[in-house]
Write a structure and sequence with these properties.
308 residues; mainly alpha; Cytochrome Bc1 Complex, Chain D, domain 2; 3 domains; two-stranded antiparallel ribbon
Length: 308
């Protein structure tokens, strides 16, 4: 796809490049024919340094001129073969995207068999394999650490992967599904619909569900609003739904904080979070291995088995 919004700019850039090359060739050629008549000494330019050092107006040496000619020749060949004249792709039709794809395909052809061998082993078993664990950890530190942390314990807005609390399910199949397709979770903003007081009421009812300190009067009023609106996702008992990605409000695990202030902020402004899909970027082999590593983080009943 062209980087220019109209062909005018492509022609403009290409024209400047061509005219610059023509001018440089003319300048170099014109200076190449300048020679001193036999027996005549070159004059000085008038520049002096330290009183006695003067600059003579001698023609450029042939070897120096030759280097300029080689440079211009290289430039012409380059612009014929590669993009450089506006959006003209050149005879080789090279792009950085095609080069990346070729290099990626070459690399994948080399390392794909290393990961595909793990596809034959189920994730639960693979999570206990020492060699697979180390390879999976390497993948995690490359692709997942930025959000979930190097220890996989997450941060505000990014789930902890080492416990047994899962928004969409922590089975091997669900982890693979999450890695392959990504997740997009959204909590609607109710601040405008509820108003400040009703938001505080609902927040206190949520605090009651989580067995935290709460205002009983506000919680009583908030229960009614919760039953009318919030049960659609979080269910009547507040335990949420993995099918919808609605968190359990009755435990001690909070993605954005479980204080009254944090809950009020969530209800008022809503939340939006997204987990990218990795299937296309990583392929089945790497996803399978990465899923085994993540699965093993929350299933630590048995240490990884040493690979024989």
């Amino acid at each position: 796809m062209s980087d220019f919004v109209s062909q005018f700019w492509s022609y403009w850039v290409g024209g400047i490049v061509v005219l610059s090359l023509v001018w440089l060739i003319y300048l170099l050629t014109s200076q190449s024919v300048v020679k001193l008549p036999k027996g005549e000494q070159a004059g000085v330019t008038g520049h002096k340094w330290d009183g006695d050092l003067e600059e003579y107006n001698n023609p450029l040496p042939f070897w120096w001129m030759g280097m300029f000619y080689l440079t211009l020749g290289f430039a012409i060949v380059y612009f014929v073969l590669y993009p450089g004249l506006g959006d003209n792709p050149g005879l080789l039709n090279w792009t950085k995207i095609s080069q990346y794809e070729q290099e990626s395909a070459k690399k994948d052809a080399t390392i794909k068999p290393l990961y595909d061998k793990y596809l034959k082993v189920d994730i639960a078993t693979l999570s206990k394999d020492d060699e697979a664990h180390k390879s999976g950890q390497s993948l995690f530190l490359t692709y997942c650490m930025q959000c979930h942390g190097s220890d996989a314990r997450g941060a505000k807005g990014f789930p902890n992967l080492t416990d047994n609390d899962w928004l969409y399910g922590g089975t091997a199949e669900k982890i693979v599904e999450t890695l392959n397709n990504g997740r997009s979770g959204q909590m609607p903003a109710f601040g405008a619909a509820f108003g400040e007081e009703k938001v505080k009421d609902v927040a206190n009812y949520v605090l009651k569900l989580a067995s935290r300190n709460y205002d009983a009067v506000r919680a009583g009023r908030g229960e009614t609003t919760f039953a009318q609106v919030c049960v659609a996702c979080h269910q009547a008992d507040g335990k949420g739904s993995q099918l919808l990605g609605a968190p359990n409000l009755t435990d001690k695990v909070w993605l954005y904080g479980g204080s009254e202030h944090a809950i009020i902020e969530t209800i008022t402004n809503g939340r939006k979070n997204r987990m990218p899909a990795w299937k296309e970027a990583l392929g089945d082999g790497k996803v399978h291995l990465l899923a085994a590593y993540v699965y093993g983080l929350s299933h630590r009943e048995q240490a990884p088995l040493a690979t024989k």
